[in-house]
Amino acid sequence: MTSLRAAVYIGVDRPLRLETLELDEPGPGEVAVSIEASGLCHSDLHVMLGEWSERPPMVLGHEGCGVVESVGEDVHQFAPGDRVVLCWYAPCDECARCRAGRPWVCLNTRANSSLMPDGGTRLRRLGGEPVRSYLAVGSFGQRAVVPASGAVRVDGRLPAELGALIGCGVATGVGAVTNTARVEPGASVVVIGCGGVGLSVVMGAALAGAHPIIAVDVEDAKLEQARDVGATHAVRGDGDVAAAVKAIVPGGADYAFEAIGLQRTIELMPDLICLGGVAVMVGMTPEDVRVSFSGFGMAEFGHSVLGSNYGSSVAPIDFPRIAALFEAGKLPIDRLITRRVALDEVNSAFDDMRARRGGRAVIVYG
């Protein structure tokens, strides 16, 4: 058993509490990881605001990258010193969905309940109270024990802070384009929301050879960042977005991606796409949000709506591929990071996220 410092979720709309916790050694099929970097994702904020149902205490953070410290029994694919990106949807690798190559909809994973495959947790407070790791990752702690299926080895030269983003936001955005929608070269794309996931959608569209790529946001700085990573056009989201898009692509875009998780912007997508166009829901809403589209319009105009979970990613394939594309200069994911913080600064970083100040923050562990 080892000790670690971690940022613990203790209740709705309360600051995360920095605590010293105890961590078990890895059991069969498990890997102990020293966390080097963790992204701060809006999904963590959904939990903190009570928009998603989770019970405390829990170590948040699910965008993690680190180095293997030790492995449990029956784990042969990793060795101490390996750099790994953590996957927050650790699949069982045995159910029908996993065997069909769709692990992002695994039928048996316990990660959605923030539990290990055996239904337990490996963290506890000093007094013995169990503490769950969010999505079986818990990267807001210095160390973690994760299922072996929730770790993916990457090139040790990949900066850990980029590996952390690959583990969620980048895979989600790029994968929504390349895996879920399978955008064709020359297809027109509009991306609503230019946060970390939306910018990753833009990069994925550029990688796929889409043209034009229209970025939509209410902040000029984010639109400029979208142009920097591949958008060909920028549209202010506080105006007549449909008219602006159709001035660029008469008749509407082939694909629209919503990367915020807001009812009004999700419902805007059918107005932005052409006959036979595809609307892709990437952003995550609060649990109680319902959206509606015209039933007549969906059929009459041949529109399709796709839900994209984790970018339909197969982590052992997609994570190293994204890392290699970064190394080749094809995916400028390093441009997403605008702030590096210490663990002690996690609450101020979330304050900035709530206020929409700045861009993507990453915790870097010393």
Describe this structure in words.
The chain has 366 residues and is an alpha/beta fold. It has 2 domains: 2-153 and 332-364, Medium-chain alcohol dehydrogenases, catalytic domain (Quinone Oxidoreductase, Chain A, domain 1, Alpha-Beta Complex); 173-309, Rossmann fold (3-Layer(aba) Sandwich), CATH 3.40.50. The protein has 10 helices and 18 strands. It has helices at residues 42-48, 96-99, 160-181, 196-208, 220-228, 241-248, 263-268, 295-300, 315-327, 346-354; strands at 2-9, 17-23, 30-39, 58-59, 63-71, 83-86, 123-125, 130-133, 143-147, 151-153, 189-192, 213-217, 233-236, 253-258, 273-281, 304-307, 337-341, 360-364. The strands form 3 sheets. Strands 3, 5, 6, 9, 10, 17 and 18 form a 7-stranded mixed β-sheet that branches. The protein has a 6-stranded parallel β-sheet with strand order 13-12-11-14-15-16, sandwiched between helices. A 5-stranded mixed barrel has the order 1-2-7-8-4. α7 (263-268) links the parallel β14 and β15 (273-281). The longest helix has 22 residues, at 160-181. The mean pLDDT is 96.
